[in-house]
Amino acid sequence: MPQNLDAVAVRAWCRLALDALGRAREEIDSINVYPVADGDTGTNLYLTAESASQAVDAAFTGHEPALPSLAETVRAMAHGALIGARGNSGTILSQLLRGMAQVIAAEGEPGGETDHVEGPVLARALRQAAESAYQAVAHPVEGTVLTVATAAADAATGTGGDCGAVARAAYDGACAALDATPGQLAVLGRAGVVDAGGRGLVAVLGALTGALSGESLTPRSTAHLKGSAHARVEAVECEDAPGEEGAPAFEVIYLLEADDAAVARLRARLDRLGDSLVVVGGDGLWNVHVHVDDAGAAVEAGVEAGRPHRIRITHFGADDAHTASQRSTAPPRERAQRAVVAVVPGEGLAGLYSEAGATTVPARVGEPPASGELVDAIRRAHAREVVLLPNDAELRHTAAAAAEQARTEGVRVALIPTRSAVQGIAALAVHEPDRRFDEDVVAMTSAAGATRYGELAVAERQSWTMAGICQSGDVLGLIDGDVAVIGSEVARTAVSVLDRMLSAGGEMVTLVLGESVPDSVAEHLEKHVREAYLAVDTVVYRGGRQSALMLIGVE
Q1: What is the pTM of this model?
Q2: Which DSSP string corresponds to 138-198?
Q3: Which one, 97, 99, 281, 544, has least CB within 10 Å?
Q4: ∠495-500-506 over CA atoms, to 5°?
């Protein structure tokens, strides 16, 4: 019976590829010396394949009890890989899958989508995959996954038979090409390893053959070459190996919504900024990958081209093999089990948070911290688990990007969406590092969520607010982010805000006073709470320089 490719076979392929990459992940990571010896190619390929497989599963779930068409299935696979692509290798894999999907999906148009394709179509799909991957890479290098993909397409072209025969020919061609990569790329030859990305592609093609024919193909281990960690260090010690001084310091990856013309300009700009440039995708959605020294400039280029999101910035210098080989022989500092990282407005609150054991990031007036600052703080905390408190509603996306970055570095991060420093104080008050991480996060999140927050600020200009029109110099009382009171004096406005917040009940009032607020205001507010709300306690802190005029919390 002919072995043709249909939607069920594509789903099986995705699952088998994920399983194969999962088994080979550590081995592929260990031989990763090009373009940067950062030991993550296997992990990146696995995460990319995982996203593709999840997208295909979602397509099947969405059509139950019927099946999705073949075209819908391969498009889902390509889209999932695109949005989940990680690293240089994962980005290229996503383009290989996209190239295949373009040919396979087009077979059913315009006369209607077919339920399967035969061997010649699969061969054309493999050719389109290799060609589109070459086009996506700014400066293609032989001896890499690109070479292996081309060899697979060459072997498949002209093969007689069904899809199973074509897939097996492609797999055999890829294996032969993979074995030849150390002779094509000097850094691989010196390290005595094959190309890591090519090794991953061989696993993916083996899974395709297995899905079509039922064969279980396991590429031989590369451990027979040179010891993995030994090989990586030896490779980066060579004088022209990637990762040496002068190589870019950051890997920048983001999804980008933009038109073709803007992406063409972006390619040219990023090519001038760095290297290892790969831009994949189309139809308005792109995945951009580049190695640069100026990560901010790479992101800014994306902003000018369209709308970047899912931004990931990885610093090569801190923990790559080259840096590790040059460190002193002193034993590394042991990681703490858990830490809290918090964005804090004002020197006074920074001291308070630090006394409670938190690693702080200053929130300067008009200059919110970037995701890189939050990632640096997470690294300084040097813990296996980190609770991140942004303490500002406007920082939720920045904090989420920082948390995602830190997770790629092996840190377990929980982001608690605190909108004010007083919510962060409430979360810190119940923090217990000795209990289970999930339990601690739940308790801290509950405490923060149970704290209403208010703020006093001075209006800079006339404007319309939820409480009416304010004039420049008016004192604004905000509750949960919205202007609720417009006043002329700090003390009276604060009393009005407190009364509104306490009308719904409360047990504790937290006041954080800015540098310009006199102690007499705090005394007046404490007296008011004591007399009007007998069961409510009040605690007062000084925010110091760079703090808000006043922060108010009610628990």
Answers
A1: 0.57
A2: SS--TTSHHHHHHHHHHHHTT--S-HHHHHHHHHHHHHHHHHHGGGTSHHHHHHT---HHH
A3: 544
A4: 100
d(C-alpha 122, C-alpha 105), whole Å: 11
Torsion of CA 537, 543, 548, 549, to 10 degrees: 70
Q: Do you find a cis peptide bond into 35, omega within 30 degrees of 0?
A: yes
Q: Are 290 and 277 in contact (CB under 8 A)?
A: yes
**Share in percent of the chain as helix, strand, coil (round to 5):** 50, 20, 30
Coil, strand or helix at 81: helix
- Euclidean distance between CA atoms 77 and 378, whole angstroms: 34
Going by C-alpha positions, the residue among 38, 27, 26, 19 that lies closest to residue 222 is 27
Q: Where are the alpha helices (DSSP H) in 430-486?
A: 437-449
**Angular region, 535: left φ>0, alpha ψ -120 to 50, beta rest:** alpha
Cα separation, 116 vs 6, in Å, equals 4
Cα(457)–Cα(490) distance, integer angstroms: 9
Both structure tokens of 460: 């800079």
- What pairs with residue 282 in β-bridges? 285
Q: Give pLDDT tens digits along the chain (555 positions).
A: 568 899 999 999 999 998 888 888 878 888 888 887 767 788 788 888 888 988 998 898 888 888 888 999 999 999 999 988 888 899 999 999 999 999 999 885 444 445 888 889 999 999 999 999 999 998 989 999 999 999 999 999 988 788 999 999 999 999 999 999 999 988 898 888 999 999 999 999 999 999 998 777 766 544 444 433 333 333 333 333 333 445 787 889 999 999 999 999 999 999 999 888 999 998 899 999 999 888 888 888 899 999 988 888 877 654 433 233 333 344 556 788 899 999 998 888 888 899 888 999 988 766 677 767 888 899 999 999 999 999 998 787 778 777 877 887 889 999 999 999 999 999 999 999 988 999 999 999 999 999 999 999 999 888 898 889 999 999 999 998 899 999 999 999 999 999 999 988 889 999 999 888 888 999 999 999 999 998 889 999 988 876 788 999 999
Q: What is the secondary structure of 22-40 as a DSSP string?
A: HHHHHHHHHT--SS---S-
- Compute the distance between CA of residue 295 and CA of residue 314 in angstroms, rounded to an integer: 9
CA dist 267 → 48, 141, 254, 294 (Å): 22, 17, 13, 16
- DSSP assignment of 225-240 equals SS-HHHHHHHHHHSTT
Asked if the bond preceding 110 is cis, omega within 30° of 0, the reply is: yes
